[in-house]
From TrEMBL:
InterPro entries: Gonadal (IPR010849). It comes from Psilopogon haemacephalus. It comes from the Eukaryota. Belongs to the gonadal family. It holds the Pfam family DGCR6. This is DGCR6 protein.
Length: 162
């Protein structure tokens, strides 16, 4: 409801005019497909990193186990302490790499939002411009949802009345 209050009749009228020829629907559909591909790619990269980390930890665990089996009993406490430090260092490296990957993902998704805003602004879609203001982003997301619903209604109407 707060978004409805912020939408002027002029904005809605301009939006309706922009939607008349169907070009905006095609643009939004294209942006949605690009976003989904980007999200799948980023998710795949994150899974790959997770898999590499899991393999790294398993390899280290096996190395440690072999070393303990070959170790003389009186050296075992020293070996275990050294292995504990090594494991902690690997865990720290993994946390850092995951944090860096997550930051990369957030930055890439933020860039996608900027690209989408820019594309829609250039297409003359009322209400779209580059912003990081959370309220404006929410408004733009609601406008996109409205456009998608109108697009679905139009597609249903075309099926019903060919």
């Amino acid at each position: 409801s707060s978004c409805q209050q912020r939408l002027s009749y002029t904005t809605l009228s301009d939006l309706a005019l922009a939607l008349l020829d169907g070009t905006v629907f095609e643009i939004v559909q294209g942006l949605l497909e690009i976003q989904h591909l980007t999200e799948k790619n980023l998710y795949s990269q994150r899974l790959q990193l997770h898999s590499e980390h899991r393999g790294m930890k398993q390899e280290l665990f096996h190395r440690h186990k072999e070393a303990q089996q070959c170790c003389r009993p009186h050296n075992l406490p020293l070996l275990r302490a050294a292995q504990q430090r090594e494991m902690e260092a690997v865990e720290q490296r993994i946390r850092e790499e995951q944090r860096m990957m997550d930051e990369k993902i957030v930055l890439e998704l933020d860039q996608k939002v900027i690209d989408q805003q820019s594309t829609l602004e250039k297409a003359g879609v009322s209400g779209f411009y580059i912003t990081t203001n959370p309220q404006e982003l929410t408004l733009q997301m609601n406008l996109l949802e409205l456009i998608r619903k109108l697009q679905q209604k139009e597609a249903e109407a075309k099926k019903a009345f060919p």
